[in-house]
Design brief:
The complex is a heterodimer of chains A (114) and B (112). Chain A is mainly β and 114 residues long. Chain A has one domain: Immunoglobulin-like. Chain A is built from no helices and eleven strands. In chain A, strands 2, 4, 5, 9, 10 and 11 form a six-stranded mixed β-sheet that branches. A five-stranded antiparallel β-sheet of chain A has the order 1-3-8-7-6, with no helix packed on it. Chain A starts with a strand and ends with a strand. By secondary structure, chain B is mainly beta. Chain B has a single domain, classed as Sandwich (Immunoglobulin-like), CATH 2.60.40.10. Chain B is 0% helix and 54% strand. In chain B, strands 2, 4, 5, 6, 9, 10 and 11 form a seven-stranded mixed β-sheet that branches. Chain B is globular and about 40 Å long. Chain B starts with a strand and ends with a strand. The chains are: A mainly beta (114), B mainly beta (112).
């Protein structure tokens, strides 16, 4: 079955450093991967999407890479700030059906220390 | 973008009762999705709700336990029936616009 996994449950870094989060997938080749941010008591918020034919995507301090050989996506937050502290989820659509059906990784809790 | 509201935001319910969660979207959408997020876990899709047809449930979820209504293009309800403590979770509704998914704030359900 399709699996999407985030290696780290938690990541602690100092303010100003780059946070790097990992998302691995097995048993399938996703057409794209998505990254979301979730704050406590809130629903996930869409951040970035990267397609299988794209190596890298950027948005302000965020960067996502997609390595289909390694079956891995990396999510980077540069010049991290305490306000970046949240749970970050990677996700992909289930099977080949509608784009709204997503399967999520278990999430990585990022804490940025001042 | 889409703005999604849910009611109630939280509730504490007794075992064996049912709770209906409402989801309202500020624009018309074809498909709405219901997810569950158990404590400390990630999101799991419960079902897809299309207007005018029966909801499609994912493996492990059944209509008798989680009946869904979709009376129009901006509204849906999810009922959690005959609740047990294992149903304690956050329930989120979601809509998709192209590839982006938008989520409601969630309903935090505690079953005692």
């Amino acid at each position: 079955s399709q699996k999407i996994e985030q290696n780290s449950e938690a990541l602690n870094i100092q303010e100003g450093k780059t946070a790097t989060l990992t998302c691995n997938y097995t048993n399938y080749s996703p057409a794209y991967l998505q990254w979301y941010r979730q704050d406590p008591g809130r629903g996930p918020v869409f951040l970035l999407l990267i397609r299988e034919n794209e190596k890298e995507k950027r948005k302000e301090r965020l960067k996502v890479t997609f390595d289909t050989t390694l079956k891995q996506s990396l999510f980077h937050i540069t010049a991290s700030q305490p306000a970046d502290s949240a749970t970050y989820l990677c996700a992909n659509k289930i099977g080949g059906t509608s784009y709204g059906k997503l399967t999520f990784g278990q999430g990585t809790i990022l804490t940025v220390h001042p | 973008s889409a703005v999604i509201s849910q009611k109630p935001s939280r509730d504490i319910c007794q075992r064996g009762t049912s709770l209906t969660i409402q989801c309202q979207v500020d624009s018309q959408v074809t498909m709405m999705f219901w997810y569950r997020q158990q404590p400390g876990q990630s999101l799991t899709l419960i079902a897809t709700a299309n207007q005018g047809s029966e909801a499609t449930y994912e493996s492990g979820f059944v209509i008798d336990k989680f009946p869904i209504s979709r009376p129009n293009l901006t509204f849906s309800t999810l009922t959690v029936s005959n609740m047990s403590p294992e149903d304690s979770s956050i329930y989120l509704c979601s809509v998709g616009l192209t590839y982006e998914q938008y989520f409601g704030p969630g309903t935090r359900l505690t079953v005692t």
